[in-house]
Amino acid sequence: MNLFVNDDESDDNNNDNVRNNIVSDRIPPSSRSNNQTNRTTSFTASTNQIIHLADILTSITTIHNNAIIIIKKDGISIHATYNHITNVSATLDPNIFSLYKLIGDEEELQLGVDLNIISQCFNSVANNLTKKDDMNDGSTGGSNINCYISYNGLGSPLIIEFEDNLISEKLEFYTFYIDDDDIINSDISINYQNLAMELLVKSDILYNLLTDLNQIQTQDLFIYAASATTTSTHPQLHFISNGPIGTSKLIFPNEKTIIEKLLIHQGQSFIISKFNYITFYKIAKAVKLSSKAKILKDSMGNFNIQLLIKNPARLANSNGSLISFNMLELDQDNNEYMLEYILDELQQQPEDYESQLTRSRSNLGHPPLPPPQQQSVILPTQVIPQLRNPLSLDSFRTQGISQPPVHIQNAGVQVTATVYDHNKKRRRDEEEEDKDESIKNVGGAVEIPLFL
């Protein structure tokens, strides 16, 4: 065996190595990895929708940092779970990718990643894009930066590269295997064949309501949903908060444009659900990004919230990405007093209104009037008049609620009863001065303290 190499042979070998290195530099990393390890399946994609991807990843990391990415020929889905009581699944819009290739014998690729680190990288690039857009007084939606994603199968890193006309930055993320089928096939998934409730609402109002509940330090959240009945022409959706400052109720506006759909199945007229609010508030980020929220509940107590997140770039063929949250509601056996109080308060509201209105008019010397139809909950200590104009977002932020003057018959003369209106305004002003500052209404829903 010859341990020495001639100079001529050494020069030839060096030249061959240089040529191989030059050729190797011109081959993309995915191709080099495939040639070296003989893997049969590889994935390559490119997109310029950085901001949209950053929003999706941030919404998922509120549930858990570790996630499973499933790559198929028809798209990418991301799954994460939290303590087997809450999980999230996001399906990315395939139209955001300008290049999408899954080459190989396998129909899909699964990889576990630390999604929090990846989300931070996308958010860092998205923040720089937003600053540039603000300086240019325009919105590019991230179109001036290209993102290249590649993965070459089990054991390979996930490679993400950001490139513009000035600089190119390549990042490699370790991947791992998660031996937990419950993340994808969970027992808390909704049963569409046995639905108990269907609800479709506007997301901006729901986000304002969640923010209000968070500011008053809600611990237990009760959601009361009732469909339209013979006694109530509109559906009712109430969020009851129980926390250290007491119990408060936030009434979701029942306008058709806000509550587009509310159906109660299985012969029930209403449904009450209970959640731990710290866990429930994890959906707030995704709710803020969406336009509409679809809420489902089955007879086993599984709760599902589906959110359609639009792409800020507004691509022509883009329908948006879908995020679905599944969660279990809490056992209500230990809160019988809260359930009884909610139902008793709702049943007593017509009598409370009538008795208080009759007492107020008798003190002024006026004959009693029939109460107007009430669409919101009336408490014994507070009267909420019927809104004269249709509900809208602006009307929720308006503090003053006006009511048309009431005409009474006195000695054959038509007289406008303005004394009661002025007295009512005076009492409302006094109540505003004595109102507890800890109860705040940020906007979006009507908030009423039940008891403290």
Automatic annotation (TrEMBL):
Question: Where's it found, cell-wise?
Answer: Nucleus
- Coiled-coil annotation reads none
Q: What is this protein called?
A: RAD17
Predominantly, its location class is nucleus
Q: Which organism is it from?
A: [Candida] subhashii
Q: Has keyword Methyltransferase?
A: no
* Region described as Disordered: spans on this chain: 1-41, 353-375
Record GO biological process: DNA damage checkpoint signaling; DNA repair
